[in-house]
Design goal:
- By secondary structure, the chain is mainly α.
- It contains 5 helices and no strands.
- Helix 2 packs across helix 5.
- The longest helix is centred in the N-terminal third of the chain and has 47 residues.
Length: 190
């Protein structure tokens, strides 16, 4: 893979992992803010570019914070569960993996990067949905823009989605453990 494609891929991954969760959080709260300060509509009409830039920067900042919390879940929850119940050598294998240098890069390395991106995405989106739902619920109490039944149904769907995303991120963590172990074994055989 040439370096320009690698940069494009890493930039795309960062956009997906950071911006999408950030926007999920910013979106409902911007409407809550607008509900309390209707004059923002006039400000938006005359300064939409500036407010868009502020919203974009806020989404990046929130996305980075969510990514940090996602990393905390990975290292303090998933890694400890894997260490305790699946692979007693998990953390030791992780440290060995961090010391590896592989040239040429094996296919498993690319697979690891992809799985890490999916895990970060799952964790970031799940956290963003929870925080965004709070803003959505706040907006619902202010504006009642959908029926209570619709809101409850949507809330249930979002809860199920969060559970699925957290489960999927845990599955990614288990796969990462297995692939890192395989890469270490291959390196040790050489």
């Amino acid at each position: 893979m040439d370096s320009s494609n690698l940069f494009k891929r890493e930039a795309f991954e960062q956009v997906v992992v950071t911006l999408v969760p950030g926007f999920i959080v910013v979106f409902p709260y911007s409407f809550v803010l607008w509900s309390y300060f209707p004059c923002l509509g006039l400000v938006w009409q005359s300064n939409s570019l500036i407010l868009s830039i502020i919203g974009f920067i806020l989404a990046i900042a929130i996305g980075l914070i969510l990514e940090t919390f996602g990393g905390w879940i990975e290292s303090h929850v998933w890694d400890k569960i894997i260490q305790r119940f699946i692979d007693r050598e998990h953390l030791m294998q992780w440290e060995k993996y961090l010391q590896l240098s592989m040239n040429p890069e094996p296919i498993g390395q690319h697979y690891l990067r992809t799985k890490v991106m999916f895990m970060k995405f799952d964790l970031g989106i799940s956290l963003a949905i929870v925080i965004g739902w709070i803003g959505f619920a706040w907006l619902q109490t202010l504006k009642k823009f959908i029926t209570t039944l619709s809101f409850c149904l949507l809330s249930l769907i979002l809860l199920l989605l969060v559970i699925y995303l957290l489960w999927d991120s845990y599955q990614c963590a288990k796969i990462l453990n297995k692939v890192r172990r395989l890469l270490i074994e291959v390196k040790n055989e050489k």
